[in-house]
Every structure is written in C-alpha cells, then in structure tokens.
Design a protein that fits this description.
This protein is of the alpha+beta class. 36% of the residues lie in helices and 21% in strands. GO terms for molecular function: diacylglycerol O-acyltransferase activity.
Length: 465
C-alpha cells in the first residue's frame, strides 16, 4: 500500500503538537461491572490489544517525506506492537488519572494513539480512555476508532496481517530520477505523475476562488484577533509547556434540553451553548469575578468531509464558528436568545467564511511553511478565541466491552497553548455527556464549573416554566 500524505490540516495539527500542549483528543467510556465476575484490567487490556491489532490505521505512524518538502505521510510501522499502546492503570481517583494521562505527550515515532483501562475504587465502574492524535482523527473518526474496540465493532473486523516486504515496484516519474543512495531506506518518495496541462488550466478558476476565500478568512481572523478578549478568569498562563491538567464531567438529560428548545425555539446545540454560557457566569460569580464585560469567544468546530481525489482525502476537514458567549446577561432566556442569534448569523454566513474558518487556511499553506509557522500559530490561538466548545456525534445504540455495558461516554478536546478550558459534548442513551479539560493553574476548580452546568440548565428550565 502506497504511503498517504497527511492532509494540510492534519499536517498543521502534527506540527502544532508540543510536549506541554499535545494535540491529541480523547474519550472516556464508563462501564458497569459484571456482578458475576471481578474486573480484570489486565485481561481487558489484552482484549483491547488484540482488537487494535485488527485496525489497519492503528498500525501506521507519521514519517517525513521528500516530495512536498516539509510534508509527512502515513506509513506502516515496521516495528508495530499494540502492547506498547494499551495499558492497565489502577487509581482510586479515576478522573485524576484521566487528567494526568491526557497531559502526557505521545511517542511521535510510533502510531499516535493510546488506550488505558482504568480500574478505580473497589465496586466502582471501570473506565477506558482512548487517546488519538488530532492528525489521526477528528471527533467523528475518533468515534469510529473507539467503536472498533467494542464488542459490536470487533465482530466486523478481521485480523490485520503483520506487514511483509512487498516486491519492489518499477520506479517511475521523479522517483526514478533519484539515485538509490539518495533515497535511502528511511525516505518515502511516492510516485509522482506528471500534471496534465489541460487539467491545470481548467483548475485555474477554482484556484482563484480558493485564494479569494483564503484572503477573506485571513482578514476576518485578523479583525477578530483585535477584538477584546474574554474574562481574565479564562486566561491561561503563557508558558511553553509542562502544564498540569484538570478533568471534570457533567451529564445532562436530553429531554430537559428538548423541553427548553420546544419552549424557546432554536436547536438543542443552541441550548447547550446557552447552558455553557450560564455555567461560566455562575462559576465566575462563585469565584468572586464580575461576569460583566465582553464574554468569552467560543470556537465551535464544524466537521466537513474532504472531497474525493484530494491528497490526504481521508484526513480532517474542519471549519468552525466563532461565538461570543453572553455570560454578562443575567436573564437565562435572554442568554439563549443571544446564542441563537449569534449561531443563526454564523449559519447564514456559512462555515467557509469568517474567523471561525481559520482551519481552512491550512490548505493554502505549503508543507514547509507549516513547520515554520506552527510555533507562531500555537502562541496566537489565545488572540482568536478563549474557549473551545465542540459537539462530537455518537452512535446512540447500546455498546459493551467484554459483555460489560457502557453507561457514559465523555469526549475530551485538546487544550491549545494559552487556553484554559476545552468543552466537549456527546449524546449517548438520552444523556448529553460533557467533558471539561482545564489548565490546572488557571482553572483548578473544574469540578465547580462542571456542577454549574447542572445549575445553568435548571435555571433555564425554571425560566421556561
């Protein structure tokens, strides 16, 4: 199988990664114990190891390439061993273990994923944490990877054979022009078909449109970065790395969210955003901070699938909306109306315009520029937004692991440099599960904010009568 180049956005995620701010996302699944047998964390880890072996993408690592200087490609890991990626952990405070594990960077010389079976307090449910580098998966593909490890997904998998040496294919094009001693065993050069001049000419209008769109997005990003930032309470330390994390969760009833939606209009996602805004207000008041003034700017990712035929076509394709959360508004229904109005404006403009579409600029940057620009972009995320809020779609069917029922699933979004909070939501079995990943120095009381989510929803329900 030929190596597959990372898409421009995946390459950006790979280069944005740093030890103090790793660009991996994750999810924590909570499972009921089987009353007929004790939890065997080591046995579960062995089961997950075997299942991971059968997923071809989990056997691939990122390697540099010569063609497309500065680029990278997915290639088979000749020394792949899933046991290096799956571990059993025993900690009384399971959520503290999740926070610690999410703060650790992954080995960039191996396939960028990890799985942990976390055995907590006796008689408590056990948890499974899945970590995937953002270059490997967006939220939707992370769900696909996770599902492959569960009982339902494993039934559809066939064991993936260990990589074997294939006969050498005839070299063509530019690859044939490179001497063997230059290519070397560690250099990956895909075959390079010569472009058809007619196709180049036919693509010019599209290229002009793409350039115009990139210019418009860049201008919007510049204007947005000049807007006042959100509350100081959400300002993380501008340190180069080594940041400790906190992780907290909340679970909301989908029926309660629909009740608010039916009374006030909009979408369930609008209601969730209003709940997040209300929770931030309550949290700030509990800390003695004044919620008045400019609200935090929330970046809301929007998943988009890449067109077929584009290099790196299986990679991430993400745009987003930028929304200022109305935490200064004391009336919960007025907060919801403000959120609805802001989201309607974003949707009318579309996900391919505005500052929230900053991720689409990755397509306009050559591979080598990604490497040089990554440190600057990592340091400037705080200028554009204050908090990440993402909604991860989830299969709403009963899921099990080794016969144990999955009861909850909390997604985890990456925390960029200069950011103190990332909020990720998913719906499973009539509950909206919310995972909060926070900078420990700026937001040590993540549990207080998680509890405030319940209070903010109750406030909305009361206001709806």
């Amino acid at each position: 199988m030929a190596d597959e180049h990372l898409s421009p956005l995946d390459l950006a995620f790979w280069n944005l990664d740093s030890p103090g701010h790793p660009m991996h996302l994750g999810a924590v699944a909570v499972f009921d114990r089987d009353p007929e047998r004790p939890v065997d964390a080591d046995g579960l880890a062995a089961l997950l190891t075997a299942r991971a072996e059968a997923v071809p993408r989990m056997r691939q690592r990122v390697k540099d390439v010569w063609y497309g200087v500065g680029g990278a490609a997915w290639a088979a890991d000749e020394h792949f061993d899933a046991r290096h990626h799956v571990h059993a952990v025993r900690r009384a405070d399971a959520w503290a273990a999740v926070a610690e594990l999410m703060s650790r960077p992954m080995d960039r010389h191996r396939p960028p994923w990890e799985v942990y079976v976390i055995e907590g307090a006796p008689d408590a449910p056990f948890r499974v944490l899945v970590k995937l580098h953002h270059a490997l998966a967006d939220g939707l593909r992370a769900v696909e990877f996770g599902a492959a490890l569960l009982d339902q997904g494993a039934r559809t998998l066939t064991p993936s054979p260990a990589p074997v040496s294939a006969p050498a294919a005839p070299r063509t094009g530019a690859e044939a022009a490179v001497p063997a001693q230059v290519r070397g065993p560690g250099i990956h050069l895909p075959a390079l078909p010569l472009p058809d001049p007619r196709q180049v000419v036919a693509s010019l209008p599209d290229r002009v449109r793409e350039a115009g769109r990139a210019l418009g997005i860049g201008s919007a990003v510049l204007r947005a970065s000049l807007d006042p930032g959100g509350p100081a309470a959400l300002g993380a330390a501008w340190t180069p790395g080594g940041a400790e994390r906190r992780f907290a969760t909340a679970s909301l009833d989908v029926d309660d969210l629909h009740r608010v939606r039916k009374t006030s209009g909009g979408t369930v996602n609008d209601v969730v955003m209003a709940v997040v805004a209300g929770a931030l207000r309550r949290w700030m008041e509990a800390r003695g901070d004044d919620p008045a003034g400019p609200g935090p700017r929330a970046l809301i990712p929007v998943a988009r699938r890449r067109r077929r035929g584009v290099r790196g076509g299986r990679g991430n394709r993400i745009s987003g909306y930028l929304l200022r959360l109305p935490v200064g508004e004391p009336d919960p229904l007025a907060r919801l109306r403000d959120v609805r109005a802001g989201m309607d404006r974003n949707k009318d403009a579309g996900p391919d315009t505005g500052p929230g579409a900053v991720a689409l600029l990755a397509d306009s940057v050559p591979p080598l520029a990604h490497r040089f620009a990554a440190p600057l972009l990592a340091a400037s995320a705080r200028l554009l937004f204050d908090v990440l809020v993402t909604n991860v779609p989830m299969l709403d069917v009963p899921l099990t692991l080794d016969g144990c029922r999955m009861t909850e699933l909390y997604p985890i979004a990456p925390l960029a440099r200069g950011q103190s909070l990332a909020v990720a939501c998913s719906t499973y079995r009539r509950r909206v599960h919310i995972g909060l990943l926070a900078d420990a120095e700026s937001l040590p009381d993540a549990d207080t904010l998680a509890a405030a989510l319940h209070g903010a929803l109750a406030e909305l329900l009361d206001a709806c009568g």
